[in-house]
User: Which sequence fits this backbone?
C-alpha cells in the first residue's frame, strides 16, 4: 500500500512539473515581445479626428501638436492651421508631387523644421502644407507619412494604447508570427518619385487591390470593383431620406449623402485576415484617376479594418500583422 502511495505521489510530482513547464512556456510565448526586442521609442496614442491614430509631436521645439498616422501619405507634412502658427518658410523649388489624404497634388514645398516623435526626429524636414479639412470636420496639425514610418517597424498596441517604434532589423515573424499576416507591396504607379503600399485582396471573391491608407477613416472600393461584385452584395444606397442607416463619418468625409453609397460586403479576405459583413464606401477618389487605376478594381484599406485591434507595420519585410 505504501509503495502504491509512493508511486502516486511520484506521478503527481511529475504531473505538477509538466504543468509548471507548460505555464512557464506559455508565459514566455506571450511575452516574446519583450524577449526578442525592445522598442527604440514609444508614446501614447488615441483615436481621434474620426477614428484615426493620433499622436502628439513637437515641431521646432513647440507643441504638442496632433499628427495622424497616415500610411497613404508619401511625406510627413503639416496642415494650414499649423503653418499659421509656425510661419514655415517656403522653398524656392518646384511644386512637390505629393500622395496623401486620398489625393495626388503638386504643392509648394516648405521647410517645416524639426519634427520630433517621442525623441525620434526628422531634422530640418521639407514638406508641404495641406489645406485644412472642411468646416464640419476638425483638422489635426499634421500627418506622419511613409518617409517617417518606413524608418521603423511600427506597432500600435491596442491594450496599452501606445505606439512602439522598433528597429527595422527586429524579427517581426518571431514577435508577431501568430497574428494574422497580410502581405503588402510597394507600388510607385509609374512615378519617378514617391510610392505607396498596396494589398492584394478579395471582395466577395473578386480580386481587388487596396492602397494601405490608415489615414482613411473608412474602407473604400471604387465603382470598377463595385460593378464586379454588385450581384452578390447588399447595397445600402445613401440618400437624404436614409439618415438612420448611414454612419455619420461618411457624411463628415464627403460632405453630402448623395456623394457616396455604402455597401455591406459579406466577405473581405486579405492574406490570413478575413472580415465578414463589412461596411464599405463605394466612391471614386480622384487619386485613382491620377494613378491611372480608375478602371481597375481598386480600393483604400482604411482604419476601420484594424480599429480596436493591435497591429504591426513592417514595411521592410512587406507585411502588415493584425492581432
Assistant:
Amino acid at each position: 500500500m505504501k509503495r502504491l502511495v509512493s508511486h502516486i505521489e511520484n506521478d503527481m510530482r511529475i504531473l505538477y512539473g509538466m504543468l509548471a513547464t507548460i505555464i512557464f512556456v506559455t508565459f514566455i510565448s506571450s511575452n516574446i515581445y519583450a524577449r526578442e526586442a525592445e522598442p527604440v521609442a514609444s508614446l501614447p496614442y488615441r483615436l481621434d479626428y474620426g477614428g484615426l491614430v493620433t499622436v502628439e509631436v513637437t515641431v521646432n521645439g513647440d507643441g504638442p501638436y496632433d499628427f495622424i498616422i497616415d500610411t497613404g501619405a508619401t511625406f510627413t507634412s503639416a496642415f494650414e492651421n499649423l503653418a499659421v502658427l509656425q510661419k514655415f518658410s517656403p522653398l524656392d523649388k518646384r511644386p512637390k508631387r505629393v500622395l496623401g489624404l486620398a489625393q495626388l497634388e503638386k504643392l509648394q514645398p516648405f521647410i517645416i523644421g524639426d519634427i520630433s516623435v517621442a525623441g525620434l526626429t526628422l531634422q530640418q524636414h521639407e514638406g508641404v502644407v495641406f489645406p485644412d479639412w472642411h468646416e464640419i470636420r476638425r483638422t489635426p496639425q499634421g500627418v506622419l507619412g511613409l518617409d517617417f514610418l518606413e524608418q521603423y517597424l511600427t506597432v500600435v498596441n491596442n491594450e496599452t494604447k501606445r505606439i512602439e517604434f522598433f528597429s527595422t532589423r527586429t524579427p517581426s515573424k518571431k514577435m508577431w508570427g501568430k497574428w494574422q499576416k497580410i502581405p503588402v507591396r510597394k507600388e510607385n504607379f509609374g512615378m519617378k518619385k514617391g510610392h505607396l503600399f498596396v494589398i492584394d485582396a478579395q471582395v466577395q471573391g473578386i480580386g481587388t487591390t487596396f492602397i494601405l491608407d490608415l489615414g482613411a477613416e473608412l474602407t473604400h472600393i471604387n465603382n470598377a470593383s463595385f460593378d464586379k461584385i454588385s450581384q452578390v452584395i447588399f447595397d445600402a444606397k445613401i440618400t437624404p431620406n436614409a439618415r438612420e442607416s448611414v454612419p455619420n463619418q461618411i457624411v463628415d468625409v464627403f460632405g453630402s449623402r448623395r456623394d457616396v453609397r455604402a455597401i455591406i460586403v459579406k466577405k473581405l479576405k486579405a492574406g490570413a485576415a478575413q472580415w465578414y459583413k463589412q461596411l464599405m464606401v463605394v466612391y471614386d477618389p480622384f487619386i485613382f484617376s491620377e494613378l491611372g487605376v480608375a478602371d481597375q478594381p481598386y480600393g483604400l484599406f482604411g482604419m476601420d479594418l484594424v480599429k480596436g485591434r493591435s497591429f504591426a507595420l513592417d514595411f521592410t519585410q512587406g507585411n502588415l500583422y493584425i492581432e
About this structure: The longest strand covers residues 120-130. The chain has two domains: 41-166, 193-304. The domain at 193-304 is CATH 2.40.70.10 (Cathepsin D, subunit A; domain 1).
